[in-house]
């Protein structure tokens, strides 16, 4: 917001011309940001733009090489003074820092429990927790096990913990990534109430629509530089995407509505019959060779569980999954791979990647037996395959031996895609394939869908992202564990969203 706001009002936090280098790589180059009292300020940019590095400086995890961070016009405390930083800022990350096996009260006062004669005063701690939760109108029980709370409730407990230290500046990192529509609405309502009570937010999201719903200001980073800061109302979506990508226009995704229909005698590659699991029941559909089918619904609709069952990641209660007419055993990943199923799982950090290994090792993980005798692949063969995937998917890296933990989120997801494609699968299952990645990485990942389809493969895209679903020939909507609607390509956003939310827009 550099020039927009009168200097008479002190920014809650500001970074002034901060630069940070890691070896020869500049993670930030002379970046500035000002976040004003009581606002929600969006920080957006492609993966690798420098958002995480800037957040690490605003939260006291890293010191800039040059430049300065200030709170209320005063220089930030020394990095070593953790208590002083906690009084000024807290970050609520996409992956919760709440300890699931402890109670809400224990999480709120961890490492600072009230004590009497050297022993934790449990009644006092529960009373203090209840007072804190009531003050900030957070409706959870202080004695509840944190692991039993919803994702939404755990985020609110983290916010309450931050506020209890005295911080009135909260960084929210992808706060809606694991929430469904109703939970997002409730979280946004709570954020707005907290803003009115003097809490300021820095809001990081890849869902640009959310920026317009909840934020008053936005800062765009690109290639480690500050591009623009402006009121959200002054930056239409097209201009925002242009600022993020350096290119005109919106997301360039092949729309399935322009495709020719498949011949009527096209063979079925994947068939799901009367499938039932923990959160879904009586799910049936088929995907033909060369067809892309979307499976969407709220987070709690069962769409992810169905896709994971097809990939062998989950067992089913009943029903059948057939690939090219052959039944698959339940909950058996090796059998799914052998049957010709490739999968991009929902959680790339836990199911999709070994972060300490290289691009080549990750990409070739499912085909080592093909690259070498006795399942041991020579490094040269692994690296050749890794380089082939780097070229095919546009993975920005220093080469096939680049350790995956050093890649941006979008490039990590491309490595997961490379591993899914390595076996040349007949059926490709993509679960939230563009979650948490930047606009250009989305385009690259979704263009793979089109290439795979043209090769005669069947593709199932289980996602809540509208851009992911535009690549689909038809979209199946799940609601409370069942398929309730089917939309052919060319659907209108409002109709699909209404179906996902369980609302009919065309009732007589």
TrEMBL record:
Keywords: ATP-binding, Cell inner membrane, Cell membrane, Membrane, Nucleotide-binding, Repeat, Sugar transport, Transport. It comes from Paraburkholderia saeva. Gene3D superfamilies: P-loop containing nucleotide triphosphate hydrolases (3.40.50.300). It comes from the Bacteria. The keyword Nucleotide-binding applies. One of its GO terms (molecular function) is ATP binding. It holds the Pfam family ABC_tran. This is Ribose import ATP-binding protein RbsA. The gene is rbsA_4. Residues 13-248, 251-505 form the ABC transporter domain. The keyword Repressor does not apply. Coiled coil: none annotated.
């Amino acid at each position: 917001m550099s020039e927009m706001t009168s200097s008479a009002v002190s920014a809650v936090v500001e970074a002034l011309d901060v630069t940070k280098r890691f070896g020869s790589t500049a993670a930030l180059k002379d970046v500035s940001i000002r976040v004003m009292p009581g606002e929600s300020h969006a920080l957006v940019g492609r993966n690798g733009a420098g958002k995480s590095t800037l957040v690490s400086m605003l939260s006291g995890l890293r010191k800039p090489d040059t430049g300065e961070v200030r709170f209320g016009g005063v220089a930030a405390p020394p990095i070593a003074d953790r208590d002083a930083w906690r009084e000024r800022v807290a970050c609520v990350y996409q992956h919760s820092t709440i300890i699931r096996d402890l109670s809400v009260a224990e999480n709120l006062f961890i490492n600072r429990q009230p004590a009497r004669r050297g022993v934790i005063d449990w009644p006092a701690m529960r009373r203090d927790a209840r007072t804190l939760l009531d003050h900030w109108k957070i409706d959870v029980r202080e004695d509840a096990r944190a692991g039993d709370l919803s994702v939404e409730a755990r985020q609110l407990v983290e916010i309450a913990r931050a506020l209890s230290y005295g911080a009135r500046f909260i960084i929210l990192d992808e706060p809606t990534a694991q929430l469904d529509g109703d939970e997002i609405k409730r979280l946004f309502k709570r954020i707005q109430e907290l803003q009115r009570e003097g809490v300021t937010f820095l809001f990081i999201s890849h869902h640009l629509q959310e920026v317009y719903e909840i934020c008053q200001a936005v800062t765009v980073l690109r290639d480690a530089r500050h591009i623009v800061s402006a009121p959200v109302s002054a930056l239409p979506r097209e201009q925002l995407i242009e600022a993020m990508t350096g290119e005109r226009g919106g997301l360039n995704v092949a729309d399935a509505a322009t495709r020719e229909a498949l011949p009527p005698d096209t063979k079925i590659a994947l068939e799901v019959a009367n499938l039932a699991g923990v959160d879904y029941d009586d799910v049936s559909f088929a995907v033909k060779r060369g067809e892309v089918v979307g499976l969407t619904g709220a987070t709690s609709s069962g769409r992810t569980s169905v896709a994971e069952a097809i990939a062998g990641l989950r067992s089913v209660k009943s029903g059948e999954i057939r690939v090219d007419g052959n039944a698959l055993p339940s909950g058996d990943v090796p059998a799914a791979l052998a049957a010709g199923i490739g999968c991009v799982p929902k959680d790339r950090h836990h199911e999709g990647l070994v972060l300490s290994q290289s691009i080549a090792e990750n990409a070739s993980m499912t085909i080592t037996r093909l690259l070498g005798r006795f399942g041991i692949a020579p490094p040269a063969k692994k690296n050749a395959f890794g380089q082939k995937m780097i070229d095919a998917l546009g993975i920005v890296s220093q080469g096939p031996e680049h350790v995956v933990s050093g890649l941006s989120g979008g490039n990590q997801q491309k490595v997961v895609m490379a591993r899914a494609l390595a076996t040349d699968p007949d059926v490709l299952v993509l679960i939230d394939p563009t979650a948490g990645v930047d606009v250009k990485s989305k385009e690259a990942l979704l263009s793979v869908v089109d290439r795979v389809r043209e090769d005669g493969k069947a593709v199932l895209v289980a996602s809540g992202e509208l851009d992911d679903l535009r690549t689909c020939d038809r979209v199946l909507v799940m609601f409370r564990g069942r398929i309730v609607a089917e939309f052919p390509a060319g659907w209108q956003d409002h109709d699909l969203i209404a179906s996902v939310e369980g609302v009919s827009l065309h009732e007589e």
